[in-house]
TrEMBL record:
Keywords: Amino-acid transport, Signal, Transport. The keyword Transport applies. This is Branched-chain amino acid ABC transporter, amino acid-binding protein. Pfam families: Peripla_BP_6. CDD domains: PBP1_ABC_RPA1789-like (cd06333). The lineage of its organism: Bacteria, Pseudomonadati, Pseudomonadota, Alphaproteobacteria, Rhodobacterales.
Length: 382
């Protein structure tokens, strides 16, 4: 599926003059997202967000007086399709920047393309490998999986949890987060005494959870993963009557996870998330309050559905890109890249971004809020 989002001005020009060229936007921004397929719960709100924000910016006069054309493709979560679409965006559509890579797999397939073409790329995926080591033209907006591990282990440490079991997905996100968690868990004095895995298509994790429950002295379970797997783990966990804390990753930080797992089964689950999920609980003097409220109200008015963390990643990527083009005073890809790298104190829904030549994320662990599911919704952990 291919979607090209033209500005209102562009559409009016086409109708009035019958010439697409007379109405062509002056700044072309590309996107390849997993709007359908197994990662659509991530990609769909990302695509909706980009369409909404492009319309907002164009209605306000564009960027430095120039209108935006959003050229967006649906890669359905397939890395090969994402690579093909990235090539098309660069060579045929001649975009000045790309937002996308809904998943780690699609992101990693796009990165060599943008490096070769020297086109700035802002990923919406979580793995630390996307920005470590730093690649000149690749940036990202979600926290890294390593940061998520650290935030979870901080919370465990505060609860005096020292022995845990892990059950991880074998997909790109799950495998990466498992590796990162195992690499730093010892720094928190926590021991992993059971380490189970499951595949993306597995429909029952009862055997793995039974193995974990059988290990002596386990005090909590951590599930690095995203997609349907963590919801199944959560349901099986409740069905087995396992009476110890269950932690999930930021990869499932949405109402959709609660709905799929079931509110009763998800009760008490903790995970690191963003301010966006608890917009109604933020203090008015919270530095993210205004941005979170504005995005939440606009998205819910436009689509009559709640915001998600994942749409927030797209929001932040777009705002970073617009800010960079405005500061650069140019739509040249190299100038945009340099300006993105100089982003300083930009407030987003995910955190406050300050990038540098050595940091193409610009967030630290304090951007995470520790959340707990209570009565079918999100609460802030003190």
């Amino acid at each position: 599926m291919t979607t090209k989002t033209l500005t209102t001005t562009a559409l009016t020009g086409i109708l009035a003059f019958g010439l697409a060229g007379a109405a062509m936007a002056e700044i072309r921004i590309g996107a390849t997202l997993s709007e359908t397929g197994p990662a659509s719960f991530l990609g769909d709100p990302e695509a909706k967000t980009l369409r909404m924000l492009v319309d907002e910016v164009n209605a306000a006069g564009g960027i430095n007086g120039e209108q935006i054309e959003l050229i967006m493709y649906d890669d359905a979560g397939d890395p090969n399709r994402a690579r093909t679409f990235a090539t098309r965006l660069i060579e045929d559509d001649e975009v000045v920047a790309i937002i996308g890579g809904t998943t780690t797999g699609t992101t990693m397939s796009i990165m060599p393309m943008v490096d070769d073409a020297e086109i700035p790329f802002i990923s919406l995926a979580g793995a630390i490998q996307i920005i470590d080591p730093v690649q000149p033209f690749t940036f990202k907006t979600p926290h890294t999986d390593r940061m998520a591990c650290a935030r979870i282990f901080e919370d465990m440490q505060a609860r005096e949890i020292m022995r845990i079991g892990m059950i991880s997905g074998t997909d790109g996100f799950g495998a990466s987060m498992r590796e990162q968690c195992l690499s730093i868990v010892g720094e928190y004095g926590i021991e992993v005494v059971a380490d189970e895995r499951y595949g993306p298509q597995d429909a029952d994790m009862t055997p793995q959870l039974t193995n974990i429950r059988g290990e002596e002295g386990i005090q909590a379970v951590l599930n690095p993963g995203f997609g349907q797997g963590p919801s199944i783990v959560t349901r099986n966990y409740a069905q087995l009557g396992i009476d110890m804390p269950l932690y999930q990753s930021h990869g499932v930080a949405s109402q959709g996870f609660i709905d799929l797992a079931g509110a009763d089964a998800a009760e008490g689950v903790r995970l690191p998330g963003t301010a966006l999920l608890v917009a109604d609980l933020l203090a008015e003097d919270d530095p993210q309050y205004d941005v979170v409220q504005a995005y939440t109200q606009a998205y819910e008015a436009a689509y009559d559905m709640p915001v998600t963390t994942f749409g927030g990643y797209a929001h932040d990527a777009f705002r970073i890109l617009v800010d960079a083009i405005e500061r650069a005073g140019s739509s040249d890809p190299q100038d945009i890249r340099d300006a993105i790298e100089a982003t300083d104190g930009l407030v987003g829904t995910t955190g406050i971004y300050t990038m540098s030549p050595d940091d193409h994320l610009g967030l630290d662990i304090t951007a995470f809020r520790m959340l707990e599911i209570r009565d079918g919704g999100w609460t802030l952990v003190d």
